[in-house]
Each structure stands twice: as C-alpha cells, then as structure tokens.
Design a protein that fits this description.
Structural class of chain A: mainly alpha
Largest interface: A-B, 73 and 84 residues
Number of strands of chain A: 0
Order of helices and strands of chain A: HHH
Strand content of chain B: under 5%
Structural class of chain B: mainly alpha
Helix content of chain A: over 70%
Oligomer: heterodimer
Largest sheet of chain B: none
Shape of chain A: flat
Number of helices of chain A: 3
Radius of gyration of chain A: 15 Å
Distance between the termini of chain B: 71 Å
Number of helices of chain B: 6
Chain lengths: ~80, ~170
C-alpha cells in the first residue's frame, strides 16, 4: 500500500463521517454534505487510479465529477415542498 | 525528488480536504457549511498538482487538472491476482456498511434519498477498490442521476395527490 492509497482510505473515512450531517441536520444541510462527499469521492477515485497505476480508472472520477451535480439539481427542481 | 514533492503536495491536499470535511461537519448552518465545500477545491488542486508532478502531463495528469479546475504513458500494470486485503479495502467496506445501515434507519423518504446518495458513492468506491470499474461506472450513473430523479418525482407526485385528496 503506497501513500496514494492511504490518502484514498483517509478521504473515504472523511466521506463516511459526512453522512452524520445528512442524518441529523435539516435536509438542506444534508444536501451540502452530499456535495462535499461528491468532491471527496471524485478525489478518492483519482487517488485509487494513481495508487494502483491503472490510469483508465481516472475516467470514473471524471464521470462522477460531471454527474454529481445532477442529484442536487433534482432536489432543487423537484424537492421544493419536501422536508 | 519528484516523489518527495508529490508526497508533500498529496499530504497538503488530503489535509485540506479533511479540513473541508470537518468544516462541513461542524458548522451550524447550511450556508456556513457550503463555505467549507468551497475549501475543498484548493485541496483538489493540490492533489491534482501532486499527480502532475509524479506523472507530468500524461493522460491521468490532464484528467486531474481537468477535475481540479473543473494522455497516458501506457504503463498500466495488469492487476495482481489474489491481492491482500488492505486498509483501503477495509475502509471502503466499513463505509458501505455504515452508509447502508444509515439509509435503512432513516425514516423520512426525502432524507433517505440524500443518505442513499452517500451510500451510492461508498458503493462506487468499493467496486473501484475491488477492481470492477465497469460496475462502479454504472453505480455512479444510477446513484447520482437515476435514483434521485425517480425518487423525487415519485415523492412530489405523492405529495400532490395527498393535497388533492384533502
């Protein structure tokens, strides 16, 4: 295990910690935490690609970076009356 | 020398990301939390810089730069057979366990959609860690696009039907 994979492990732990915000705080704050978790997950995938020297894996990070917005946009568009 | 610089940049980037996570965790209001999401961007930039220092402008280096702002020396190694379970495997499994349990225990449907988003991200990372990038790709698309849209459409429809009934 090299430094890149350790970094990925640490950031995955950070992502898991963020879920407590989504559980305990109001819905909007959970959405903010989900955004932060999206950025976190993108970096985890990039670090795994670098750490395992399998460069095509970095494509996943690219796809996630583009699509991670979509869920939040769905909430803003359709989730207005929900709580 | 390059490796040392890359490691320092990597450590700084991870520290900044953790700071952003801690900020999102500890702040009291949505806008304050959002402030710390912004702090994640320089962290991503540092990690991208670390990869570029190590790989120079190869395919992954360019992707890293693209991601931080928002070509490859083909030296991909074939995956090792029967690799050991590492800390990353353990952390990814723990993340899936925790977020999956949380998704089940949360009882409000709209909140459940948000928590399921975390679960989807954790699952995608798990699949990638265990060397199944194609599965991870479909998981990403399902959990970030398909599930939130379908679930929210259904929820708003139910809410509207309830209003009409009253």
């Amino acid at each position: 295990v090299n430094a890149w994979l350790w970094a990925a492990a640490v950031l995955t732990a950070g992502l898991t910690a963020l879920v407590t915000v989504a559980i305990r705080r109001p819905l909007l704050e959970g959405l903010v935490a989900l955004e932060a978790a999206g950025i976190d997950a993108v970096l985890v995938m990039l670090l795994i690609a670098e750490g395992t020297r399998r460069q095509p894996f970095a494509d996943l990070a690219l796809v996630l970076a583009v699509t991670s917005l979509a869920g939040t946009i769905a909430f803003l568009r359709f989730g207005r009356g929900l709580r | 020398m390059r490796d040392a610089v890359a490691t320092v940049l990597l450590a700084a980037g991870v520290a900044l990301e953790l700071l952003a996570c801690a900020g999102v965790l500890l702040m009291r209001a949505a806008l304050d939390r959002l402030h710390y999401v912004g702090a994640a961007a320089p962290g991503a930039l540092l990690i991208a810089a670390a990869i570029v220092v190590r790989e120079s402008f190869s395919q992954i280096g360019d992707k890293a730069v693209l991601l931080a702002g928002a070509d490859a020396r083909h030296r991909a190694r074939p995956p090792r057979r029967g690799a050991r379970v590492t800390a990353l495997h353990a952390v990814a499994l723990a993340a899936v366990t925790l977020t999956g349990t949380a998704t089940v225990l949360v009882r409000t449907p709209s909140r459940q959609v948000v928590v399921a988003g975390f679960f989807g991200l954790a699952l995608a990372i798990l699949f990638l860690v265990f060397g199944a990038p194609d599965v991870a790709l479909s998981q990403i698309v399902v959990s970030t696009v398909a599930v939130p849209f379908m679930a929210l459409l259904a929820l708003t429809r139910f809410a509207r039907d309830d209003q009409e009934d009253e």
